[in-house]
């Protein structure tokens, strides 16, 4: 991926991220966050993680942001009125963020493995195919794509997910079930005024 | 050419923006959005590490599995968090965190 695209999508991601914090209307914040996630998905694709990029668009920019917008609509929240700022909290927050950024810059400037360029670690389908065959892994569709010199990202994710991480996948499935039931229990209206059905 | 540090820096900056939002904003829904932003920033650095740590010519898919699980858990967390916000709004009629100070008094 050319560097100019990396800088473009990083700028989209960070710029809309700043708008999320800066805009006072929650609807504008939510839409900016969706744009920020689209930029992030483009960065995922630039790293060869096509599946994760698509999931980012579907789950975050699609489902989660629609959920946020529904909640905002349900509450009928207007733009925040200006209140007196809690000055110590604001100063504390800004200082904390500055310290974090400074720490990040210091750590990254000393991080030698991070100085590797992306073209020094190329994706090598032929080598991958040979290694997989040596390890006795032969899945016909994956082999076909690797032999054609392509990266079968989704197929490899599926293979890893359903072999090495099968147990984790099932645990996450249970977690989603628990979350679904929990959401229904929490958001149920406790209506105590409902009249019991009169006996005949 | 792009280096791993470029991706890590961008990811860290996104995390810092999310942190600033959590610290500075008072609207609980916007705070929750900024939390999501911080989770995604962590995902970006995981995917970058996965790409730059190739295993015999392929990205390290263990990292991408962790990202997949994080996205799933984050989706569950959004659902539960928004349900709690709905319950809170029903009880207090506010989404302003300064108005929710029952544990201060």
How would you sum up this structure, described in words?
The complex is a heterodimer of chains A (200) and B (105). The model of chain A has no long low-confidence stretch (mean pLDDT 88). Chain A contains eight helices and no strands. Chain A is 71% helix and 0% strand. Chain A is mostly helical and 200 residues long. Chain B is built from three helices and no strands. In chain B, α1 (4-24) runs antiparallel to α2 (28-52) and α2 (28-52) packs antiparallel against α3 (61-92). Chain B is elongated, with a radius of gyration of 18 Å. The N and C termini of chain B lie far apart (56 Å). The model of chain B has no long low-confidence stretch (mean pLDDT 91). At the A-B interface, α1, α2, α3, α4 and α5 of A face α1, α2 and α3 of B.
Class derived from helix and strand content of chain B: mainly alpha
Count of separate DSSP helical elements of chain A: 8
Uncertain stretches of chain A: none
Give a quick account of the main beta sheet of chain A: strands, pairing sense, barrel closure.
none
Terminal CA distance of chain A reads: 75 Å
What secondary-structure arrangement, pairings included, does this model have?
The complex is a heterodimer of chains A (200) and B (105).
Chain A: H1 3-22, H2 26-46, H3 50-75, H4 87-110, H5 125-134, H6 140-147, H7 153-163, H8 166-187
Chain B: H1 4-24, H2 28-52, H3 61-92
Helix pairs in contact in B: 1-2, 2-3
Entry keywords:
heterodimer, A: 200 residues, mainly alpha, 8 helices, 0% strand, B: 105 residues, 3 helices, elongated
